[in-house]
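Posting for a labmate who doesn't have an account.
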Amino acid sequence: MSETITPAVRRVDGVEAPTAGRWRIDPGHAEVSFIGRHLLFTKVRGRFRSLDGYVDIAPDPVDSVVEVTIDMASVESGATARDDHLRSADLFDVGRYPTATFRGRPLSWSGRNGSLGGELTIKGVTRPVELNVTALGVVTDPWGGERAIFSASGTIDRDDWGVSWNMPLAGGGVLVSRDIHLEIDLETVRDR
C-alpha cells in the first residue's frame, strides 16, 4: 500500500501558503538580529547564531502557533569586547538566563502577510511583543526537504526586560538606545 503524501503548499486567500502541520526551524538557516543606536546616531547590529523551535501551521492561519528558544550566549555583534559585555550581568546575564523564549499566534493574517502577537521572555521577564510577518514562500530543497520561509520585524524597548545598562552623554541622551529593532529570518522544514 502506498503512502499518501500531502502537498507542501495550499491556497489561502488566493496565494500559496505552507500546508497545515509542524514546520521545524532550521537553525543553520535562521537568524534573530537586532539593531540599536550607539551615541544616538550610529546603528549597531547584532545577531543570535543559535536558536531552535517550530511553527505549527493550522488549517486557519490565525490559529497557528510559533515557539522559539534563543541561546543568548550565541550573540555576536562583530566586536568581542561588546559581545562579552552583552553576555554579562549588565545586559543579558547569560550565566543566570541562558535562553530567551518567544511563543506567539497570529493576530491577523491576509495573503502572505500578518501580525504576530506573543510573549517574549528575556532574563526571566515576560512581556507582550507584536511582530509584522511575511510568509515568503515554500520551496523544495535539493535533498527533497520542503521548506517554508518567513521573515518578521518589530521594535521593542529593552528596558521592559531589564536589559537596561546605559551611560549618560555629556550633551544629553544616552550611550545606547532603548528602542531595539528586531529582524527575524526563518527557514523551516516540514515534519513528515
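Reply:
Got it, the C-alpha cells are right above this. The mean pLDDT is 91.
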